[in-house]
Amino acid sequence: MTSRKFSFLAAALIGVAIAFPIPVLAQNYPASVKELVLSTRKQIKTVDMATFKSIVDTRAPVLIVDVREPDEYAEGHVPGAVNVPRGLLEFAIWSEVGFPDKTDMNRQMYLYCKTGGRCTLATKTLQDLGFTNATAVVMQFADWKKAGNPVVAEKAM
Known about the structure:
There is one protein chain. This protein has 157 residues and is of the alpha/beta class. The protein has one domain: Rhodanese-like domain (Oxidized Rhodanese, domain 1), CATH 3.40.250. Helices cover 43% and strands 11% of the residues. The chain is built from seven helices and five strands, in the order H-H-E-H-E-H-E-H-E-H-E-H. Helix 2 packs across helix 6. The longest helix has 17 residues. The protein is globular, with a radius of gyration of 19 Å. About 11% of the residues have low confidence.
């Protein structure tokens, strides 16, 4: 293979990888990450998908927080959910809880993500910040969609 053909092939493969990233799978990180999530889950409040669905269905006055990245949120999210990515949580949650005038540290919140890991760690972070009523939704978002539960997708520009 000539150098020119190899360069073209390499550039094409990089372009495809950027355009169509492979989702991070659970097997792509050490067991210590799973252990961290499981041990953290013992320190916080959690609910399963069925309980969360009943909360969404009743349209209870709760804050639903999607801690996934903005592109994941745009592809589809639970109706009424706000997007506060886990990496910005400590800085971005405040506008959702009335800061600075009437900050509600007891605001009932349900956090979810793609598989339950990020929302578990995010719920612990909120707890560490002093929030008293944050709950992680332990579910696979793909299962939420597969069950026919409501999902809102942002319109493409």
